[in-house]
Task: inverse folding
């Protein structure tokens, strides 16, 4: 139904770094099998949310089989034990449970939401255990999913946002695993044996964290975690993601008959435990992360009406995730918009935020502490990140304190050291279909 | 972590209002003397609250030539009041630690903030201020209308499937206002003036055309008092009579084609369908909702099982029906053909699924599965303050009430296999069918080969 949604929603670029209220206390233990578990009990609603995260993201893809991680995750619920994919889907629906998850650069996630009442919960957990312990990875499903993936890719590659995003990723990461992109060839190269091997070597106890939020007791949570861990290999491959090298500056233009040009500017940014994490994230709130109140929004949209959406963000990952600035604007005004962005970024790096801007960023972050964790779903999101990346258990409590102590100088210094014009990549795709562009009179001056 | 826009879907979940605890009268509702309705749902799990103001005016109330004005005014609502400069609304909410935004649909326009619960009085005050004292300059309008045009380019003009949906609605409805896109035709946006937006505001933004919805860690009596203090002084206005526009009978299938840069064709089919007016009587609507869920309610549902996974005629396909709205309804199915298959193959496969229900009905297991999901959904939705506020507000804005929720769930659960078969037989004649098809245009300088070639 989503694609038929009649809503029009003004853009709100919601890129809040993680905050929480101090009241969320994470219980942590290691099961006898060696699995790390993170648990937040809550009996406010009769719901249990559970998430398994594995160091099995797309950065672990072999270069010539990019998409292997993604197929492995996708096929987990395609067959298990004596169940085929229809039986799995029906069992889930019968107990009203929902499965989710997916793959990003670092993680492969399997999440389950179920009612906490015994029949439903047991039914849902039994199914999850079967999927994780006895996946069958049927050949015919893999063949079909490869075809669908190729079709999706071919379609996406005609769309300017996908083209821009792929060119950007490739340009800032080069040969680093974060830069690996699925193509028809790499999709076609993924065989069943690859999937089986990848699952055995990456969906292992030592590469996993288990997060539980909701209506179970500690004892029940311990039993659930042990049960899941008991049927998985204890240890898997020792492959890790190498550090990221910074790219040379580049300016990439790709023609496309779209009305708007899609602009992406940036470079590799920060890791999860980066020393500059707080000054860069809070500084970025001022630059382009703060929804309607950022400098980019003010200069590009509010003052000039150049774009509906403009933003900047740091995505912290195991290794340096992207720092990205973006906007879309009609083809005929892309040069003007780029000039505004360049000047905004240059000024911000040179001078840093004003005292008033830094205060506003701190107010937003610290005052909004409680809102980031006002539902089980949101709590699960943070807990799973803390668990997977092995962040300190009191990370949520420390966050606002670290933010409160930031100075204008610290933010400016961090941006000057880390956001370097020498390494900035710029990608502009499309805008050639802008009729104003085509009809523009020749320049007279 | 991702930057993303707040997105909201209207599906089965939204059928249901809030699941109130049996012994507690929650939510709480009152109406001020000036007609402003206030609904408060106490949810004390976290020190967080959602404040929304819903105006019972949307694109459905527009007239030809000024399509998109409801949504443009929504943008202008952030552009200053008599006492608050442009942009200040967002800054105040951000300083509280909150987020805010707004959205416009065919049926309503709504504004929201999520803030720490001790700031509820402040955001109620901000909303009251802009209900009656909006004041934006021509210069602000001139910039913002360009932002809205960029929004249209981003969401519709450069998105082939959005163009198809827009065309499908324009084909299915000839007289009914749903034929016009919420964001408006670009040609109308090109000609819109600041006064068009101001007139819209003057006509529709009044306390007796709005509902305040508050969900979160608050006391309802305290909120009623805060709303009364902020809005109570406003006068009720005379609202224009709302004309009900009834789409005339259709007398044969309609087809429409969109050409746009794309790789794969795509087809969407819409049949005219009934809309829920009487919660206790309109059983066909509930039966059609169950039919949509049997076809595409979960991964094991028929369309996924048969068309995407079984015959593999389509790489993706779906079905959707809402049936709750101010205006009229359509039942939609859609799909993208696999390589070697055509739009005609996908149409035939989708039709075959409906014909199978017409002929053989649905199984008790399928029906049970739909109901199990509805029941679980009633619990899951209570996890989100925003979701609960959305549901209460949307129901109210289309002329129903959160009080109808339990009845609607009961009705849905009472749908029989025979009723599902019967609606499948009665509502899917090609007499009331409209089809829109995407014909892919080649993308010049095809970047695909370049990207593949540049791979390491």
Result:
């Amino acid at each position: 139904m989503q694609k038929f949604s009649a809503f029009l929603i003004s853009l709100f670029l919601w890129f809040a770094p993680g905050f929480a209220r101090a009241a969320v206390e994470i219980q942590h233990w290691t099961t006898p099998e060696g699995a790390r578990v993170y648990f937040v009990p809550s009996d406010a609603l009769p719901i249990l949310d559970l998430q398994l995260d594995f160091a099995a993201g797309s950065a672990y893809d072999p270069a010539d089989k990019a998409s292997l991680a993604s197929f492995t995750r996708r096929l987990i619920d395609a067959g298990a034990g004596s169940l085929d994919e229809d039986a799995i889907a029906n069992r889930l629906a019968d107990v009203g449970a929902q499965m989710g998850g997916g793959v990003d650069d670092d993680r492969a996630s399997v999440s389950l939401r179920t009612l906490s009442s015994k029949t439903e919960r047991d039914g849902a957990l039994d199914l999850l255990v079967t999927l994780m312990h006895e996946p069958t990875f049927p050949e015919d499903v893999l063949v079909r999913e490869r075809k669908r993936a190729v079709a999706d890719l071919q379609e996406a590659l005609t769309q300017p946002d996908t083209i821009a995003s792929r060119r950007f990723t490739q340009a800032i990461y080069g040969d680093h695993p974060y830069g690996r992109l699925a193509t028809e060839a790499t999709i076609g190269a993924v065989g069943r044996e690859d999937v089986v091997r990848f699952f055995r070597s990456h969906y292992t106890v030592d590469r996993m964290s288990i997060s539980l939020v909701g209506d179970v007791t500690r004892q029940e949570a311990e039993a659930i975690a042990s049960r899941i861990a008991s049927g998985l290999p204890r240890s898997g491959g020792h492959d890790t993601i190498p550090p990221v090298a910074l790219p040379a500056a580049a300016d990439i233009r790709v023609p496309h008959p779209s009305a708007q040009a899609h602009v992406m500017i940036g470079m590799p940014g920060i890791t999860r435990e980066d020393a500059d994490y707080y000054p860069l994230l809070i500084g970025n709130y001022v630059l382009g992360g703060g929804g309607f109140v950022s400098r980019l929004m003010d200069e590009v949209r509010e003052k000039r009406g150049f774009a509906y959406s403009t933003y900047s963000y740091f995505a912290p990952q195991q290794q340096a995730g992207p720092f990205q600035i973006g906007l879309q604007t009609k083809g005929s005004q892309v040069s003007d918009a780029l000039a505004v962005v360049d000047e905004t970024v240059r000024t911000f790096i040179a001078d840093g935020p004003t005292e008033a801007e830094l205060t506003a960023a701190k107010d937003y972050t610290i005052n909004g502490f409680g809102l980031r964790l006002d539902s089980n779903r949101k709590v699960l999101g943070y807990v799973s990140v803390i668990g997977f990346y092995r962040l300190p258990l009191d990370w949520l409590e420390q966050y606002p304190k670290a933010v409160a102590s930031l100075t204008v100088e610290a933010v400016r210094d961090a941006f000057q050291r880390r956001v370097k014009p020498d390494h900035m990549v710029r990608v502009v795709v499309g805008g050639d279909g802008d009729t104003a562009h085509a009809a523009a009179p020749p320049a007279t001056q | 972590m991702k930057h993303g826009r707040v997105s909201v879907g209207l599906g089965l979940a939204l059928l249901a209002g809030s699941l109130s605890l049996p012994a507690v009268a929650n939510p709480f509702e009152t109406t001020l003397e000036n007609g402003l309705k206030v609904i408060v749902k106490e949810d004390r799990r976290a020190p967080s609250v959602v404040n929304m103001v819903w105006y019972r005016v949307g694109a459905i109330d527009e007239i030809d030539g000024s399509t998109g004005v409801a949504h443009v005014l929504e943008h202008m609502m952030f552009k200053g009041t008599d006492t608050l400069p442009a942009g200040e609304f967002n800054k105040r909410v951000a300083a509280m630690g909150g987020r805010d935004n707004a959205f416009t649909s065919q049926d309503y326009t709504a504004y929201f903030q999520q803030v720490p619960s001790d700031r509820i009085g402040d955001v109620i005050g901000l909303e009251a201020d802009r209900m009656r004292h909006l004041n934006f300059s021509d210069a602000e309008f001139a910039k913002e209308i360009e932002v809205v045009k960029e929004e249209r380019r981003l969401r519709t003009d450069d998105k082939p499937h959005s163009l198809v949906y827009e065309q499908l609605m324009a084909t299915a409805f000839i007289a009914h206002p749903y034929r016009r896109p919420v964001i408006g035709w670009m040609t109308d946006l090109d000609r819109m003036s600041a006064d068009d937006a101001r007139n819209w505001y003057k006509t529709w933004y009044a306390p007796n055309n709005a509902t305040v919805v508050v969900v979160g860690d608050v006391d309802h009596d305290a909120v009623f008092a805060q709303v009364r203090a902020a809005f109570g002084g406003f006068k009720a206005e005379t609202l224009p009579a709302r004309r009900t526009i009834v789409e005339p009978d259709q007398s044969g299938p309609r087809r429409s084609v969109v050409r746009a840069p794309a790789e794969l064709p795509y087809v969407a089919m819409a049949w005219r369908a009934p809309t829920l007016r009487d919660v206790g009587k309109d059983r066909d609507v509930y039966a059609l909702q169950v039919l949509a869920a049997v076809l595409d309610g979960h991964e094991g549902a028929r369309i996924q099982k048969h068309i995407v996974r079984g015959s593999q005629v389509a790489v993706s396909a779906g079905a959707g029906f809402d049936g709750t709205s101010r205006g009229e309804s359509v039942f939609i199915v859609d799909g993208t053909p696999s390589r070697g298959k055509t739009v005609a193959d996908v149409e035939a496969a989708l039709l075959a699924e409906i014909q199978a229900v017409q002929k053989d009905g649905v199984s008790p297991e399928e029906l049970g599965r739909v109901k199990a999901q509805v029941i679980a959904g009633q619990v899951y939705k209570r996890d989100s303050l925003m979701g609960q506020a959305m549901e209460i507000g949307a129901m109210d804005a289309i002329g129903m009430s959160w009080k109808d929720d339990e009845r609607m769930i009961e009705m849905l659960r009472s749908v029989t296999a025979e009723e599902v078969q019967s609606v499948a037989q009665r509502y899917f004649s090609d007499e009331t069918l409209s089809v829109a098809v995407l014909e892919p245009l080649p993308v010049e300088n095809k970047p695909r080969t370049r990207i593949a070639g540049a791979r390491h």
Residues 1-23, 445-456 of chain B have pLDDT under 50 and may be disordered. Residues 138-157 of chain B form the longest helix (20 residues). Chain B is about 40% helix and 20% strand. Chain B touches chain A through 112 residues (CB under 8 Å).
